[in-house]
């Protein structure tokens, strides 16, 4: 029998392991999962969640884990922020759904207004709401094609944009995202990006290489849009060399090509500013957002300059659930919490703590500590050759998870440990989790 949330005691913010992980309840659920869910839906942790709050996830057997994943950069305000819980409870008691394309409601409009205020776009903006990051990317491409009358779209090496047919075409890494699922959408092209640790190029030089490919292999006259994550997420938390992104955006502006900033993973205070584009000094034409937008409720958005977004004919954008009212209520609560709880500053503090910790626990196998705000990563390499070390990465992550830390990896080469804690995690818990990772590395 679920305990009503208003009487539920706060979840203790400490790591606690019972005598087994996974415990008996998780083991039983794993058996049920095997009998009902396809193996293609793979889980990282061997336990099943019962509660999550602040920086802790409690599993069904009473293990409390330090959460350094935030459900892949989603629960930035925590997985049960009181404001979000209250907003969701009030909305769900009024109505769960009318379909905005049928009977609209204020929450959708209010979210669009807020995103227009916060987005790093000057002038009038418009926002359309969807459910997932991939759906937002799909629709940003539709808008770009409608506005420019051109079809080609360019993405970068190491990009990740989703798992739908078009977004798989935009995504770089084959396994597990694309393998065996082709053919992919046409008129999608890939150009070299900026990966300073591996290409050793400054921003201007890397941009020249990308622009040469854009011009010679695709042609600006055919190109509707260039899409890039300001910090590449699944590809390895790759921060492009300074100057790269502004050079690409300048080229786009000079050649009537739209620039789409995919801020699905880097948005909503994750990198210490509202959006990572701000720090890169770029103003996108279109921006896709999701993940941190609504505290775990499924919601995504395309925000763009009004003249671009309004190029789409009436009825051209939509979908049954897009901008669900409960998700919009959650999003409005999240946007308030980000400001009231000072989460931009907390993300900056998290970066300082992570950098200071690993600068104190140096290891020659750490090829680079990189990222921004609470989107930080370690790239593991063979110190003799600089080659990616995926085996070490897997061993460190597995050991940390066994010790009760939810830890994610990423990277084209599978050799990046990433830190995506909820922005509300206590400094004490964060430091404890980082200590577990350092101990796992020392023992590997
Ligand atoms: C930049 C960027 N754009 C788009 C997406 C896609 O967002 P959806 O909400 O997962 O569709 C992402 C999702 N990243 C996590 C994917 C996890 C997995 O599926 O294994 C992203 O990071």
From TrEMBL:
Its EC number is 2.6.1.19, 2.6.1.22. One of its GO terms (biological process) is gamma-aminobutyric acid metabolic process. PROSITE patterns: AA_TRANSFER_CLASS_3. Belongs to the class-III pyridoxal-phosphate-dependent aminotransferase family. It comes from Micrococcus flavus. InterPro entries: 4NH2But_aminotransferase_bac, Aminotrans_3, Aminotrans_3_PPA_site, Class-III_PLP-dep_AT, PyrdxlP-dep_Trfase, PyrdxlP-dep_Trfase_major, PyrdxlP-dep_Trfase_small. Pathway: Amino-acid degradation; 4-aminobutanoate degradation. This is (S)-3-amino-2-methylpropionate transaminase.
């Amino acid at each position: 029998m679920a305990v009503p949330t208003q009487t539920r005691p706060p979840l203790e913010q400490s790591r606690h392991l019972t005598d087994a992980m996974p415990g008996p309840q998780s083991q039983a659920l794993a058996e049920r999962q095997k009998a009902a869910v396809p193996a293609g839906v793979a889980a990282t942790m061997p336990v099943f969640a019962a509660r999550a709050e602040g920086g802790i996830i409690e599993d069904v057997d009473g293990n409390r884990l330090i959460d350094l994943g935030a459900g892949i950069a989603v629960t930035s305000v925590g997985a049960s922020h009181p404001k979000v819980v209250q907003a969701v409870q009030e909305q769900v008691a009024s109505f769960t759904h009318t379909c905005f394309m049928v009977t609209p409601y204020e929450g959708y409009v209010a979210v669009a207004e807020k995103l227009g205020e916060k987005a790093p776009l000057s002038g009038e903006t418009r926002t359309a709401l969807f459910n997932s990051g991939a759906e937002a990317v799909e629709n940003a491409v539709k808008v770009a094609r409608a506005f420019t009358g051109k079809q080609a779209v360019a993405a970068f090496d190491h990009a990740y944009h989703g798992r739908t047919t078009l977004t798989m075409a935009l995504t770089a890494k084959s396994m597990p995202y694309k393998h065996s699922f082709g053919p992919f959408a046409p008129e999608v092209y890939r150009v070299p990006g900026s990966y300073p640790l591996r290409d050793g190029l400054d921003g201007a030089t890397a941009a020249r290489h990308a622009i040469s490919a854009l011009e010679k292999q695709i042609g600006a006259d055919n190109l509707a849009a260039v899409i890039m994550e300001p910090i590449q997420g699944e590809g390895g938390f790759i921060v492009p060399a300074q100057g790269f992104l502004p050079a690409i955006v300048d080229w786009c502006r000079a050649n009537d090509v739209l620039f789409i900033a995919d801020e699905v993973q880097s948005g909503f205070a994750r990198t210490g500013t509202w959006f990572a584009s701000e720090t890169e000094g770029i103003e996108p034409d279109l921006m896709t957002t999701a993940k941190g937008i609504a505290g775990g409720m499924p919601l995504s958005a395309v925000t763009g300059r009004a003249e671009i977004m309004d190029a789409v004919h009436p009825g051209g954008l939509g979908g049954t659930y897009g901008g669900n009212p409960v998700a919009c209520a959650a999003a409005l609560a999240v946007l308030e919490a980000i400001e009231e709880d000072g989460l931009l500053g907390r993300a900056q503090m998290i970066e300082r703590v992570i950098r200071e910790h690993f600068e104190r626990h140096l290891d020659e196998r750490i090829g680079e500590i990189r990222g921004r705000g609470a989107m930080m990563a370690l790239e593991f390499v063979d110190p003799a050759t600089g080659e990616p070390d995926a085996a070490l990465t897997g061993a460190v992550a597995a050991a940390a998870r066994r010790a009760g830390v939810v830890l994610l990896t990423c990277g084209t080469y599978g050799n990046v440990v990433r830190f995506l804690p909820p922005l509300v995690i206590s400094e004490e818990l964060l430091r404890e989790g980082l200590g577990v990772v350092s101990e796992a590395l020392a023992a590997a």
